[in-house]
Structures are given as C-alpha cells and as structure tokens.
Write a structure and sequence with these properties.
Elements (H helix, E strand, L loop, with lengths): L8 H6 L2 H8 L2 E5 L3 H12 L4 E5 L24 H12 L4 E5 L5 H11 L3 E4 L4 H14 L3 E4 L11 E5 L7 H12 L7 E5 L8 E3 L8 E3 L4 H19 L3
Parallel strand pairs: 1-2, 1-4, 2-3, 4-5, 5-7
Antiparallel strand pairs: 6-7, 8-9
Helix pairs in contact: 3-4, 3-8, 5-6, 6-7
C-alpha cells in the first residue's frame, strides 16, 4: 500500500484510505486545457490522482486571462500544456505526468488511447470534429469518459447539470455532438456536463478566418471553472467508487 502524503491529509479526512489509494493509483487523460480543461486537470491532480496525461496544442493568449487557469501576463505565448504541467508538478511533485503539446485527431487520438491504459478520459475539446472522434473512440474502446459541453454564453451556475448526452438540452454544442454521434449509432452512454441555461445569441461573433472555430461566444470567469470542477468531480467520484 502506498503511503498517503501529508499534503493529501485533508482529502483523507473525507475519503478513507482505500478510496485514496484508488486515486493515487489512477491514470487519467485530460484533452483540452482551456477554461474548462485547465481547472479540471488541476482539480484532478489536487484530489491526488497519481498519473495523468494532459493534451493541448494552444498557447496562452491575453484574451484567455478572464477565465483560464494557465493564463497570466507572465505566461503569455507559452504552451498551455507546459504551463499546466508546471502547476501540476508544483502541486504534486510525485505525479507521473505525460505532456502532449499537440492538436490531436484521427490516428494520433487512436495512438494515445491505445498506449495510455487510462482509467478515465476527460473531453474538454472545443472543436466539434476532433471532439466527436475522441468521444466515439473512447466509447468504442470502453474507456470511462466524461465530456464537457458548452460553458460559453452562460452566467448562472445553478443551471449546470450532469447527465447522459441523451438528456442534455438548451446546448448547441450538445445538439451537434448528439447529431454526429447518432451517425455512428451512439444515442446514449456518454456522461456529460452541460448547462440548461439558454445562451444569448447576441453574444456570439464570427471567429477570424483560418482558425479552427467558426464563431466566438462571450465568457465570464466563473462558468468555465464551475464546468471544470464539475467534470473533475465526476472523474474523482467514479474513480474512488470503482469496484
């Protein structure tokens, strides 16, 4: 049995030694380290998960500072994955951390999932095609998965929900994901975090040409963080309750 480090002592007051051991021995993949994924990865590490792989190809931009954990003046133009890696290692110096500073899709997604032996995967991807491919591949491989839907355009934390994808509503991203997954015969069996709050359509603008996104939507500091913490809670509770 692995000794539980002192920095986890407050968590250990809440969770018993057996549950803590499950977290310390767990291996979690987080793809996407923006407003939702960054805080999600940090909460998973702070809970004591001993092995993680984090994936993101973006660099920190000034416009990220209103909501993203990696985003500071001092980290402008630095890779988000590397910034998050420094944070996670500063929280838990013993963490077994793999850092992938790439935009993953198709064969690369398959390769990472095949090699990782993950106990849980987290989808915080905000571009539709790679998001759906990642979800589909995880489900086909039987990897436990939770997926974040759209946090943008929302203000009310009380509207954040955890449900199966089939029960999500009032979320454009969830609707597009459901539609794409249906083509592969997938209608349920995906755990998601979404908001039932209707976003204001007037808060959406067209994205600059040449980028991966077609539009940009207004965001506020707390909503992506609440999504990220909620997603992390799904992962952590599923891991320590695992038989």
């Amino acid at each position: 049995m692995i000794e539980i480090p002192h920095w986890m002592s407050r968590t250990n007051l809440l969770l018993d030694n057996h549950q803590m051991q499950k977290l310390i021995n767990a291996n979690v993949l987080v793809v996407g380290l923006g407003g939702v994924g960054g805080i999600c990865a940090e909460m998973i590490a702070r809970a004591g998960v001993g092995k993680m792989t984090i994936v993101d190809a973006d660099v920190v931009e000034a416009s990220n500072r209103n909501r993203q954990i990696p985003a500071l003046i001092s980290t402008d133009n630095q890779p988000k994955a590397e910034v998050m890696a420094q944070r996670l290692r500063d929280i838990n110096p013993d963490i077994d951390l793999t850092v992938i500073n790439e935009y993953i899709k198709d064969e690369r997604t398959e390769e990472i999932l095949n090699e990782g032996n993950f106990d849980y995967a987290v989808d915080c991807i905000d571009t539709l095609s790679p998001k759906v491919f990642f979800i589909q591949t995880c489900l086909e491989k039987g990897i436990p998965l939770v997926s974040s839907m759209g946090a943008g355009g929302r203000l009310d934390p009380s509207k954040v929900r955890i449900s199966d994808i089939s029960a999500s509503y009032n979320c454009t991203l969830a609707r597009y994901v459901r539609k794409r997954l249906k083509k592969f015969g997938i209608r349920k069996g995906l755990k998601v975090v979404f908001s039932s709050e209707l976003p204001d359509a007037n808060k959406v603008i067209l994205a600059p040409e040449g980028g991966p996104k077609k539009s940009l939507i207004g965001t506020v500091s707390w909503m992506p963080a609440i999504f990220g913490c909620t997603v992390a809670s799904v992962v952590i509770r599923d891991l320590y309750n695992k038989a």
